[in-house]
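**Archive record**
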Amino acid sequence: MIIQTQALPARYTLDHAGHRFEVEITAASLTNTARLLIDGQFVEEQQASIGDRTHLRWQQWAVLVQWGWWSGQVARCVLLEAHDDQPEPEKHGIPLTPPPGSRAARLAQFQREHPALYAARHVAIAVLQVALPLLGIGALILGLLPDLDWSWLPDVGAFLRSLRAQIFAWLPDIDLPFLGLRQWLRSWIGWIVKSPVFAWGKWLLPIVIAVFVAIEEFQRHQRNQAAAKQPESTDQAN
């Protein structure tokens, strides 16, 4: 006989503004359930599908639960303060503490101990995405493929030349001798395409974007840490 047991609900917690916020997480099939408890008292329960968002409200507070892409996974659980029934921007939210021993708890601990390194993961991922093709991964994959006869494929170069001619064909023949608009535009586009900056830009742009994302995430973590410590400082002063 097979006995099916239901796993205990995962619980995210936060002590803030003189109250204890708790969010219980359960899942059944593709339906996720989040229950909000304030100081141990049940307040609200909502269900959602994978990938959705859940807002649990209590007074001027809202707990945002961002569900992951498999059953029961929580990608983010933060406390937001609502103004005029509208929660503040998510980046100002205070994260709730994940259940002890969970993967989310280990990740949160690593973020607390190494915030700069945690934020730099965006840069590392972007560098890998750029570096792997340059290191010859594509050539390695091609080397594993069988030697096939590709002579039946059309002439790609001729196709690109034809496409280029069609793109420039729409430019009108405007008689502006003092500007030379048509020739100037062609020369300008050609210079951009052949420019080393353009060639390197497609590799550097993802890294630059990742750097800005990492900086923003690190600053958000610093703000969250300051917001979480502020009530503790107030209680000690009293």
About this structure: Residues 1-6 have pLDDT under 50 and may be disordered. The first helix runs from residue 103 to 113. Residues 121-145+154-220 form one domain. Strands lie at 10-16, 19-28, 31-38, 41-49, 53-58, 61-67, 74-83, 86-87, 94-95.
